[in-house]
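The records we work with from here on pair a chain with its fold. The integers have meaning only within a learned vocabulary of local backbone shapes. A complete example follows; check for yourself that the lines match position by position.

:::
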Amino acid sequence: LVAAAPSASLGLGDVYAFLRTGSVWAFETKFAPPPSNPYGSFGFSSDVEGDLIAVGMPNGDGTGCVYVYRLVGGAWIEEALLHATYGQAQAQFGSGVQVQGDRLVVGSRGEFVWDQFSGSGYLFERVAGTWKEQTKLVPSWGMASGYLGIPVAIDGNRAAIGGADPVNSVF
């Protein structure tokens, strides 16, 4: 179980992992943004699957970023720091995250697409131990203020990106 507190620690954000043993949930560890990335919103989005945790930080590094942690030998280690290949200023990459196996879908709700703030999604895959951006997911039409990127979902070979537009917000 992962619980996020993106406004904790003076607005920088924290993420807490809990482990279930039998019927009892117990605190396992706390994740915090490194001092080199003090831009806030760490934990705005988060997801866990097995020994993998993804934490979105849509204000991180100016364009947004996603931290990927893996449980190795009983300790959580930072496995990757992901950015969009062509990240835009204030794109809010990391506004939504979901992991499934060696795949990760990331929302970027502030991205400027089709001359509008339509938002987008990105699909990453872990190949030979390295996370690589596979594709950028954009709507085939312009959606003024669609802000696609929250929520995101992945299941097998399908990904869904939601947004703020109540009519055209899922693709």
About this structure: Helices lie at 8-11. The chain has a mean pLDDT of 83.
